Amino acid sequence: MHIRRCGIATLSIAALVVAGTMQTSRAGAATAPSTAALAYVTNGQVAVIEGGSLTVAGTGQNPVWAPNGSAMIFNTPDPRSGNAAIYISDQHGANSKVLVKSSYSYINPSWSPDSAYVLYTIIAPNTKPKGQTIELQVEAVKVSTGAVKSLGAYTFTTGCAVTATALLDTFAHAQGSYHGVPTTLIWAQPNVVVAQSSCSGLGLTLFNVGGKSPKTLSNWSAAVLSPNRKLIAADANGKPGIITVASGATTVLKFKFAPASLTWAITSGLVYAVSQPADSATGNVSIYSFAPNGKTSLLLGTVAAAGAFHLSVNPLGDHLVMAVVARAPAKAAAPPAVTVYDAPALRAGSPVPLIAGMEPAWRP
Questions:
Q1: Would you call 131 exposed, middle or buried from its count of C-beta atoms within 10 A (0-12, 13-18, 19+)?
Q2: FRET label pair with 257: which of 102, 152, 176, 272, CA 20 to 30 Å apart?
Q3: DSSP labels for 293-356?
Q4: pLDDT tens readout for residues 124-166
Q5: How far is it, in rounded angstroms, from Cα 128 to Cα 282?
Q6: pTM to 2 decimals?
Q7: In this model, does residue 318 exceed pLDDT 60?
Q8: Is the pLDDT at 323 greater than 70, yes or no?
Q9: DSSP SS3 for 144
Q10: Domains: count for the chain
């Protein structure tokens, strides 16, 4: 495999490939099971596999592709300052450069649906913390010009107490956030913004840009916008939930699984979700597909694991990847392994290990 040295550091091929699980070219180079590019994180580096090439974008986490596939962002938190720099690379993960020098590190950046803006949060200017709450401002930087505009401000709850264990640290790394919880920041253009309300990951605040007062769904999390921008799927206090963008109306579906991570199908209108086991040492994660109208659901497969994060579907709609944390006791002495698993053809059956890494994301 060819390695492009485009980031701060490079990776060894041995650290990337899980033996016997990657497809190989005639030259023996490891490739992802699709012609699309797959971004992921390993050893603290953001990398992209595309065909027979591996590009290292740089040190960081949470790679997110522009919806049109033209670029990728990732962020590099600084725990000492409580801020994070946001980097942007090209459509291959190369030529990374700083886009935003300082953003609020609890909430990962994201893209606007039209791929023109990158969204992030900062502590609102001229405000001070009030107990365990602060005012956050949602900003959007235009990629082509660097111009920044504010989309609005809302109240964010801090003060999360974290018990450091090897398993929880692994969950944090696999999720790509400081506390290992889902982070949400959505601009359903032109008007609606949905943002994470607390450092615990619980709570979604919805507000209209320049309009109505914010509305908070206190026990909702892990929200993702549908491809047609009309619906948002989320974890509604342990059940699949749907938010209608135009009205803000919410529906809690009656399926009996908790969607800890979700993603939308490219064309079918279905939602994919993964549920976490009750026991991290002996349990399984389960992968489901379901209709947002609540009428149908399907169990696609299970994996013996402590948890799974970052579902992503490739542009052909025939491969679903996720970061899987190996089974481990709650107070494991050493961090368990994290592997990117692939569910080929999205049919019922067990996903297979693909590469040693986390935070996978297919390029659209």
A1: exposed
A2: 176
A3: TSS-EEEEEEEESSEEEEEEE-TTS-EEEEEEEPP--TT-SSPPPEEEEEEETT-SS--EEEEE
A4: 998 888 889 999 999 999 999 999 999 999 999 998 877 789 9
A5: 45
A6: 0.89
A7: yes
A8: yes
A9: coil
A10: 1
Lookup: tokens for 66: 């522009």
Range of the domain at 134: 2-362
Q: Encoding tokens for residue 164? A: 């450091």
* CATH assignment at residue 214: 2.120.10.30
Integer Cα distance of 82 and 344 in angstroms: 39
Find the length of the chain: 364
Which two tokens mark 283? Answer: 């349990």
At 277, list the tokens.
């086991």
What are 156's two structure tokens? 């964010």
Q: Given this model, what pLDDT does residue 114 score?
A: 96
Show the tokens assigned to 157.
């709850």
- DSSP secondary structure of 9-70: ----GGGTBPTTTSEE-TT--EE-SSSS-EEEEETTEEEEEETTEEEEEEE-EEEEE-TTSS
Residue 239: alpha-carbon gap to chain centroid: 19
Radius of gyration from C-alpha coordinates of the chain: 19
DSSP calls for 221-288? EEEEE-TTSSEEEEEESSSEEEEETTT--EEE---SS--SEEEE-SSS--EEEEE--S-TTT-EEEEE
